[in-house]
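User: I'm writing a tutorial on reading structure tokens. Could you give me a worked example: one chain, its sequence, then its tokens, then a sentence or two explaining what the tokens reveal?
Assistant: Sure. Here is the example chain.
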Amino acid sequence: MKLKTFALGGVHPEEHKLSANAPITLLPLPAQLIVPLGQNLGAPPKPLVKKGDEVKTGQLIARGEAFISANLHSPATGKVLKVDDAPDASGYRRPAVFIDVSGEDEWAEGINNTDELITRLDFSREEIINKVKEAGIVGLGGATFPTHVKLMLPPGKKADYLLINGVECEPYLTSDHRMMLEKAQEIMQGIRLMMIALDVKKAIIGVENNKPDAIAHLAAMALSHPGISVQALYVKYPQGGEKQLIKALVNREVPSGKLPIEVGCVVSNVGTAFAVYEAVTKNKPLIERVVTITGLELARPSNFMVRIGTPIAKLIEAAGGLPEGTGKIINGGPMMGKAMTNPEVPIIKGSSGILIMPGKLSSRKHPQPCIRCSKCTTVCPMGLEPFLLAKLSKLERYEDTEKEQIMDCIECGSCQYTCPSSLPLLDYLRLGKFRTGQMIRNRK
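And here are its predicted structure tokens:
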């Protein structure tokens, strides 16, 4: 199989896939769950429960009323302690539902929680989209865009391809890898259901070549699923970026400021495909996901099936505890992840991994003056000039950052990774992108 990749930029960080051979293990439920309301891109859902309410596993506890929003369900059976603010991964306090877990699951009516493989495909497009919406499915690759909205194509648009992201190019993380090995049949069914919803005949699963077992397994499965193929990809970060994946798999380029549907593509994650399968065939909402907990000095790097709302501290405890000399706990991987200050922050729908970084690797080098080497420009997968955008952001020249297309930045961190002067380029790009976005929205 010939390897494919995107053409522009990219870097090759050390992979450190320490948990690649660790099977998915069910993490026991904690005594209390903290379920943030804002777990999706767009407007947060509005709570339907209050203090003292009894809830069942899978019961709707917050409804997404805006067009871009997602429903939220109780991850366990118990009693609502309160609806109050709680710190999230960024350190800010956000509204959340606190649930005291009662013990054994009592599932809400109509949910099939068995491991039985259901191969039904006799659902209409409308049924699939509605079930995905009701189940609160969002993109599990990190963006958390409501999946039902992605399946509702804009008027006049036609999808030619459904592209499935099984790349997992971020170092250390292996949750998608394990899903492809252990849940391949369910993923295939989820892909076929999304193909029906989008009315597409071709789906391509892209997987980096450092996962040969997943490629072989999925390719064998695809033989019995018409229209689905598997493409091995060259190992290069950020291969899993949406626009980079489209370029690698179908050689189409998404124009600046546009969405993948402009070039006839819809992109989804393997974990999302699994969630779609469970939502449509089993009426099971998104209340749990696979999360990698890993680190060079962690006793047992692992992949856990975790209920939404579980404190990160519980994963660390199950993986052997916090190693002495830990410098940072990172939500995500080392390239795009963000350091956290509180291990009691809960797992949410977009949590793919937790990285425990030793102190000796977590401290930044003192930044030096830019030497105009152009390495950051060479590795940028979007063809931007990170050194210029960072400088403009630092000077708060947001009209200029807009002109220089800062909104095209995918925040991959390749520029900062390769900078010989150790400049905090990604920090300034994130800040500039946020402020520029605010300016554009205010203008509209």
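What the tokens reveal: The CA atoms of residues 264 and 439 lie 30 Å apart. The longest strand covers residues 78-87.
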